[in-house]
């Protein structure tokens, strides 16, 4: 239980869902955590952590706020090893012809500019420290293929996938690794309305039914992958976008191959 012993991590979007699960999991594994969110819900994430999680309200898409988070980690804990750029917003499901420029700008600001700022400010500090570390970004299966999100959201997450690949090359020789997690359907604040609606109709079992595991994920399942990428156990994993989707993106969900037969 000491995967992150004596390491310092910043996690954005930590007010609920994947970010909250990750903050508590990292702390359980020995890390000192700056948990950040744009809402006051982040205070609950830090409650009962005995000072191992410090809550800071901040906007992950604001350059000044991200710079402040990095400075806070150095001032409070004296170092920085990990930045988990997890904060994101969904945007609408309107088609391209019906989407507004303002919507696209806001989705890209939070979902793509936010991870860029994490790489820019945290990456520099970690690289200069000499001890190396990890930048982790939450992308999505929507960034791998179309159909899992609205146009702006999908484009922003595709950008995150390419960002970690570019950043991994930019940080060559610094021992700063950059990777992305691409969640499939996961119960978070962003998807809660989908889960609530499915439960009301008695169709919760339909969530995730297109993947081989035939279910959706819990946020802790994404947090566990983030823990791996944050730890030294993933020391040779770099520039990768890891799909954590029950196998959804491993095939085209038009037909299913099941025990020697094709199910349509």
Automatic annotation (TrEMBL):
Keywords: Oxidoreductase. The keyword Oxidoreductase applies. This is NAD(P)-dependent dehydrogenase, short-chain alcohol dehydrogenase family. It comes from the Bacteria. Belongs to the short-chain dehydrogenases/reductases (SDR) family. InterPro entries: NAD(P)-bd_dom_sf, Sc_DH/Rdtase_CS, SDR_fam. PANTHER family: DEHYDROGENASES, SHORT CHAIN, ESTRADIOL 17-BETA-DEHYDROGENASE 8-RELATED. CDD domains: SDR_c. GO terms for molecular function: oxidoreductase activity. Pfam families: adh_short_C2. SUPFAM superfamilies: NAD(P)-binding Rossmann-fold domains (SSF51735).
């Amino acid at each position: 239980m000491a995967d992150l012993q004596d390491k310092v991590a910043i996690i954005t979007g930590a007010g609920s869902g994947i970010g909250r699960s990750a903050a508590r999991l990292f702390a359980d594994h020995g890390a000192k955590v700056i948990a950040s969110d744009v809402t006051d819900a982040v205070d609950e994430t830090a409650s009962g952590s005995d000072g191992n999680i410090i809550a800071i309200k901040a906007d992950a898409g604001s350059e000044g706020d991200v710079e402040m988070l990095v400075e806070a980690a150095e001032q409070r804990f004296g170092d920085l090893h990990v930045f988990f750029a997890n904060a994101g917003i969904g945007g609408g499901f309107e088609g391209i012809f019906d989407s507004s420029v303002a919507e696209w700008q806001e989705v890209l600001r939070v979902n793509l500019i936010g991870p860029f700022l994490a790489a820019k400010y945290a990456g520099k500090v970690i690289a200069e420290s000499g001890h190396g570390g990890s930048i982790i970004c939450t992308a999505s299966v929507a960034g791998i293929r179309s159909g899992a999100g609205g146009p702006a959201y999908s484009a922003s997450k595709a950008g995150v996938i390419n960002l970690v690949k570019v950043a991994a090359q930019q940080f060559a020789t610094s021992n700063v690794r950059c990777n992305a997690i691409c969640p499939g359907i996961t119960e978070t604040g962003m998807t809660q309305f989908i889960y609530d609606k499915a439960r009301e109709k008695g169709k919760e079992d339909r969530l995730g039914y297109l993947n081989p595991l035939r279910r959706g994920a819990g946020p802790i399942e994404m947090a566990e992958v983030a823990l791996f990428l944050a730890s030294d156990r993933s020391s040779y994993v770099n520039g990768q976008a890891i799909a954590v989707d029950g196998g959804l993106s491993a095939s085209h969900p038009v037909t299913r191959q099941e025990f020697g037969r094709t199910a349509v």
